[in-house]
């Protein structure tokens, strides 16, 4: 009985592996891409007197499109300065995920 359960679980796992990348895979890739994009933007405009801290990366919506997925999200962050204190803000981003076989590539804009 246990062996049969293990076999069925393996069959389900194999079937999921053969179906290709999912929306959940695209969301994970885009969450990382959003973090990288925000880091690159904040590095370009950073000054020693302003501390920028990401508090959350929120995935808003995701959908399958021709050749991959589109994922929209928001990077929520806090800017802290000595004179003003902490100011919460956010940056909306869109991520396009191209699927090539099992490989995913992202473009954030």
Features:
single chain, 109 residues, alpha+beta, 4-stranded antiparallel β-sheet, 4 strands, 48% strand, disordered N terminus
- The spatial strand order of the largest sheet comes to 1-2-3-4
- Estimate the mean pLDDT confidence: 84
Strand content range? over 45%
Shape, principal axes of CA atoms: elongated
Taken in chain order, the helices and strands follow as: HHEEEE
Largest sheet: 4 strands, antiparallel
Regions with little confidence, pLDDT below 50 for 5+ residues: 1-18
Number of strands: 4
- Report helical residue fraction: 25-40%
Rounded to the nearest angstrom, the radius of gyration is 19 Å
Query: Number of DSSP helices?
Result: 2
Distance between the termini: 52 Å
Which structural category fits the helices and strands?
A: alpha+beta
Commentary on this structure:
This protein is an alpha+beta fold and 109 residues long. Helix content is 36%, strand content 48%. It has two helices and four strands, in the order ααββββ. The chain has a four-stranded antiparallel beta sheet, with helices on one face. The longest helix is centred in the first third of the chain and has 22 residues, at 23-44. The protein is elongated, with a radius of gyration of 19 Å. The protein starts with a helix and ends with a strand.
């Amino acid at each position: 009985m246990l062996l049969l359960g293990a076999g069925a679980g393996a069959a389900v796992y194999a079937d999921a592996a053969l179906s290709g990348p999912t929306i959940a895979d695209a969301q994970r890739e885009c969450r990382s891409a959003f973090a990288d994009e925000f880091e690159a933007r904040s590095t370009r405009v950073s000054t020693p007197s302003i501390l920028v801290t990401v508090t959350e990366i929120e995935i808003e919506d995701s959908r399958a499109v021709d050749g991959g997925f589109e994922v929209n999200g928001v990077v929520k962050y806090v800017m802290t300065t000595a004179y003003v204190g902490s100011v919460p803000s956010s940056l909306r981003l869109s991520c396009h995920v191209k699927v090539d076989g099992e490989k995913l590539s992202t473009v954030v804009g």
